[in-house]
Amino acid sequence: MISNQNLSVFQIHIILPEIFTRSFAALIPQQRERVNQLLEEQVILNYALDMNRQNLWVTLKAKNQLEVMDILSTFPIIKEVKVDIFELAFFDTAPIGLPNLIMN
Asked: Which pTM was predicted?
C-alpha cells in the first residue's frame, strides 16, 4: 500500500479500441485482476466503464505523473489504448459507511 503522504489524485481517461480483437478481449480478465489488486491496495480510488465500452475512467493516488505512468504500465491493456492523465485539484466522495441500524 502506498503511504498517503505527499500523494496527489489523478483522473485518467482511457480510450478503448473501437473494435475489440480476440487478443484485446483476452487481456480483460488480467486487467480486472490488476485493477482489483490496486483497488484493494487503495491506489485506485475508482474505476468506471461507459455503457458503450469505449471509455474507462480511473481515479488513483500517486506522488506525481511519472508514478501514474509507472502504475498504468502494469495494466495488461495499456499497449492497446490511448490515455489522458489529469492531476486533480481536489477529489471529494460521499462518505461510505454502514447503513443506519434500526432497532425494533
From this structure: 0.84
